Amino acid sequence: MLTKKGKYGLKALVYLARSEQGKAIQVAEIAERETISKKFLDAIMRDLKNAGFVRSWKGPGGGFALSRPAAEIVIGPVVRALDGPLAPIACASRTAFQPCDDCGDLRTCAVRLVMTEVRDAMAAVLDGTTLQDMIEKSRTADAQIGD
Question: What is the pTM of this model?
Answer without folding.
Answer: 0.88
